[in-house]
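Support case: user asked for a sample of complex input and structure output to validate their parser. Sending the pair below.
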Amino acid sequence: MLEGIPILSLVILVPLIGAFVTLGLGRYGKQARVVALAFSALAFVLSLLMTYEFVTDPTSEATGYHNGYQFYEEYAWSDSLGVSYIVGIDGISLPLFVLTTLLCMLAILFSWDTEKRQKEYFGLMLILEVGVLGVFVSLDYFMFYVFWEVVLIPMYFMIGIWGGPKKDYAAIKFFIYTHVASLALLVAIMAMYFEAGLQTFSMEAIAAESVGFAKGVQVAIFAAMFFGFGVKLPMVPFHTWLPDAHVEAPTAGSVLLAGLLLKMGGYGIIRVAIPSLPEGASELSILMAVIGVVSIVYGAMLCLAQKDLKKMVAYSSISHMGFVLLGFATLSQVGIVAGVFMMFAHGLVTAVLFMMCGVMQHKCGTRLIPMLGGLSKRMPIAATLMTAGFLASLGLPGLVSFAAEFMVFYATFVKWSLWVLVPVVAVVVTAAYYLWALQRSMFGPMTDRIDTSHLKDMDWFEYVPVAALMALIAVFGVFPGLIFSRIDSAVEIVMRLFGGG
Amino acid sequence: MLEYAWLIPVFPFAAFILIALLPKRTLWWEDGAVYAIGGALGAMCLSFLVVWDVVMGDTLIDGSQRFEWLVVGDFSVTFGIWIDQLSAVMLVVVSVVGTLVVFYSGGYMHGEGETRRRYYAEIMLFISVMYGLVIADNYLLMFIFWELVGLCSYLLIGFWYERPSAASAAKRAFIVTRVGDIMFMAGIIILFKYVGSLDFADLFSGAGVAAVPSDMMILATALIFGGAIGKSAQFPLHEWLPDAMEGPTTVSALIHAATMVKAGVYLTARSYPLLVQAPESLLFVAAIGGITALVAATAALAQNDIKRVLAYSTISQLGYMTLGLGAGGYLVIHADSAAGYSAATFHLMNHAFFKALLFLCAGSVIHAVGTNDMRQMGGLGKVMKITSLTMLIGSLAIAGMPPLSGFWSKDEVLAAVWHAGEFDPAFMMLWVMGIATAFLTAFYMFRMWFMTFAGEPRSDYHAHESPRIMTVPLMILAGLAVVSGFALFIGDGFKAFMEGSIDGLLAGAGHESVFDVAVEIFTDPLTYLTLALAIVGIVLAWRMYYVPGFDRSVFAKGFNGKLQRALENRWYISKFYDDFAIKVVYAASLVADAFDRHVIDGIVNGFAYLGGNMGQVLRRLQNGNVQRYTGLIVVGICLLLILVLYVLPWGGW
C-alpha cells in the first residue's frame, strides 16, 4: 500500500505544514485549535497506516527495508561535510513515533479552551511534534542533532509564555540546563565523527567503525553522550530542571514534556550510545545502574514529600525513568526491551496523570493536595480516571507499566542478583505516595478550603483524551506482547554487539 | 468439562462490564443486583461441574491450551489453567460464599441508593479475579490476579470513601499487602532465573526443582510465603485486616474472611512441591502461623467492635492454616503423609463457611441495631431468633465443638502439628500455642455471642429480624457449617482426595481408610484435651458475660491495667507502623526534599550565579594577594599533573 511513498517524511511534514498554516491564520486565529487538531490527526492517521504496514510485513523491500530499518529514505545534503537526510524506523522507534503523533493530537484536544495567543500556542505544539518525530527516526547525527535542538525552542516558549507565576525562571532553567547537555552531546558527536574519519554523519556508518574504537575513547565518548541524554531523561542528580519546568508549564506542555521529551533521552541511549559504543557501555554499566536505582528510590521518596499534585507527578517521572535506565544498564535483551517498553508505557500513563493535574487546576483552581479533599462526590468521572491513572503508574498488573517493571526487575536480578531488592522496595513507596495523595484529594469529607459550590466534573475535551489513553493503557497492559514482539526483534540486532546478550 | 474452566471467571467479569457500562434504567432491581446474581450463579454452576469432574478423579495440570503473553528473546511467558484437588476446594469456597454474599447483599445494601452500582460492579470484578487466581497455572499469572484481588479489596474497603477512616483503611490495606506482594514478586523472579519458566508444570517437575540452588530455594520459598504473610494477614503484617472492617459487612464476609485472605494460604499450599525442598522455609511458615494464631487470639479478647472480634478470629484461624501447612511439610518429608496438608486445606474450607456465616450474622445484627459496638447491644436473641441461632452455630463451629465442622479440621491441624513434633521439637512449642489459641477462641467467641444476644438491651435500639433474602443465606451457611466437616468421611475421605494434588511428593504409601481416620480422632487423648479447653473457654465466657454480677475489673486491673491496655491497643503494632510511616519514612522524604531543593538545586543555581557573575568573581580573585596567587598556582599545577598523568592515559590518549 505504501510502496514508493516516503511515509516517514510525510508524517513529519504534515505537522510542519500545519504549524505554518496555524501561525499564518491571521484574523481567523480563533480557528487555530481546529486547524491544529486536523493536522495532528492527519499525522496520527498516517502513522497508524504506517504501523499497519510495518506490522504486516516488517521486512518488505518494496516499502524500503534496509538493514533492520523499514521505510528507509536517504538523500544526500552536503557531500563535503557528509551530511545527509536519512530516516528509517524499527521496532524501537515505532512505538515512540506513534506515541508522539497520538500524544500531540490529544494534547491539542486537551488545550481546547486555551484563550491566550492561540495561533502561537497551537503552532508551537506542531513544531514541537516535528522535532520529536524527527529525533525518533533520524539516522544521521547531524539531522538528529538539528531535530533535537528544534524541540527545545517551542518548549521554552510554551513554558515562558503560557506558564505559571515562576515561568521565567523555569523556562530559562529548562533551556540552559538542557542546552548544556546538548553541548555535551554535540561534543560526543563531533568526537565520533572525527575519530571515525569517514566524512559522514550517518549513524550506521559511524557505528560500524566506532564499535572498534579503543576502550578509553569509547568510555570518554559514552560518558559525554550519557550525560547529554541523561539530563533529558532525567537522571539524578541532573533532574532539578524537571519539577520546575513542569510546575510552571501549561498542562499540554507538561504532557508533551514528560510524555515525549524525556523519551528522547532514553531513546538516544539505546539508539546511539549503547550500540555505537558497546565497550564504553559495558564499562559504565554499573554507573548507569547505580544512577538508575538512585533515581528510582530517591525520586519515589521525593514524591512522598510533595504537596503539589503536579510536582508529585513530575517527580514520579524521575522515578519511573530510572527503570528505563536500570533496564538499559543490564545490557541484556530482556532489560533493554523492558526499558523501551517502559518508555512507551510511561508516555501513556504520565500523559493521563498530567492531564488529571490540569483538570484539578482548571476546576478547583489549585493543585495543592491540602486544599483538596472529598472531590469524588462531585467529580466522579475525574476521581475514577485519576484513580485508574495512579494505579497504572504504581504498576498494577493488567495495566501497562507492570510488564515493564517486572522484566526490569528480572533482568536486574539476572545481572546483579539480590541487589534488585533495593529498587523493589521503591514499589511500596510508589504505592504509598499515590494512594495517600488520592486519599487526601479525592476521598474523605468534602473540602471547605476552596469554593466547591460551582464545582463541575470534567469537560468533554478533557475526558475524551484521558479515557482514550486509559483504554490503551488497559489494552497494552493485558496484551503487552503486541508491542514487545516488535521491540524484541529490533533489540536483537543491538544485542549482537554484546555477543548475543 | 475441565478445559472450559477458564470460562468461570468470564461470567462475573461480564457482569462487571455490564453493571459498569449499562445505562442506569436498564440496571433493574437494586441497581444491578440482577446481573451480579446472574454472574455469580453462572460461575457457581460451572465451578460445580468442574469440581464434580475433579471428584471423579480427573485433573488438568498440563497440556491445557496456552495463551502467549510475552516473548522476549528466550524469556517467554505463557498462561493457562490448572485444575486439581486444591483448586477444586477453592472453587467450592469462592463460588458458594460468593453467590450467597451476592444474594445477601440484595437485602443488606438496600439503603445505599445509587452507589449500589459501584458496589455490585466491584464485587463482580473481585469474584472474577479471585476465580482467576485459583485456576492460574503460572506464578506470574497468579501474581497478576493476586494484585487485582488487592485492588478490589482497596476499592471495597474504601466503599464509603467519604468517611476518613474508610479512606485511610483502604490505603493501609493496599500498602501493607503490597509489602508482601513485592516479596512474592522477588520470589518468583528468583525461580524464573533458574528454571526459565513460571509454569507450575515446569517448576514442580523434578528438573525444575533441581535447577534451583538450595540456598536460593530457601530464599525464594520464604519470599513467596512473604506474599502470603501480607495477603493472609499473618504476623507481623496482619493489622490491616481489622482496619479493613471499614468496608460494608458483606465485603468483610466475602473478602476478608472467606476468600481473599485465603489466597495466601492457597499460595502456600500450591507451592508445596517447592517448600518441601526447603525445610527451613517450612519451619518459618509454621512459626509465623503459630505466632499469628496466638497474637490475634489475644487481641480479640478485648475488642468491643463485633466485626473486629471476627477480624481477629479470622487472622487467628488463618494462622492455624499456615501452621498446619508448615507442619504438614515436615510430615511429607519425614513420614510420607499428607495429613497436615489436607488438614490445613480442610480447615480452609470449613472456616470459609462458618466465618462467612459469622460475618453475615454480624451484618444482620449491625443492619438491625445500627452500630458495631457490642456494648450497645445485648438481648438481641429475643428479637432476632434466626440470626442469634445461626450465629450460635457459627460460634460453636469455630470454637471446635463436635460434630460441627470446626471440630474436625482444627483437631486434624493440631494432630498434624503434634505429629511433626517428632521430627523437630520446635513444633511442640507451636502445638502448645495452638491449643492455647483453641481455648482463647472459644472464650472470645462466646464473649461476643453473650454480649450481643444474651441479657438485657444496653441501648435504645429498635431491632427486628432481617428480611428473608438475608436470613436464607444465613441458614444455608449454618447448614454448611454443620455438615462440611463430614467431608472427612465421604467416599474415600477428604484426606485421600487431597493427597491427589501432591501425590508426586509422597512415596505412594496406601492411604488410610475413612474408618481409620475416625478411630484415630476418637482414640487420641489430645482430641479430648483440646475439646476440654474449648469447653472451659465457653464456660468462662458464660460466667463472665452472662451470669450477672461478675466483677470483670479483676482482669482489667491485672499488671496494673497494662495488659488490658495493650490488648485494647492490639499490642501497639498498628501504632508502631503509623509511627514508622510518619516518623521514619515521611520524615526521610522531607529530608530528601529539602536536600533536593537546597543542595542539589542549590549547586545548579550556584553555577548559574557563577556564570552570570563571572566578572565579579574573577575581580575578587585578582585582589593582589601574592599568597593566594601562589596557592592557586600550586592547585592548578596539581590538577594539570593529575590530568596528564592519570586521566588522559586512562582515556587512551
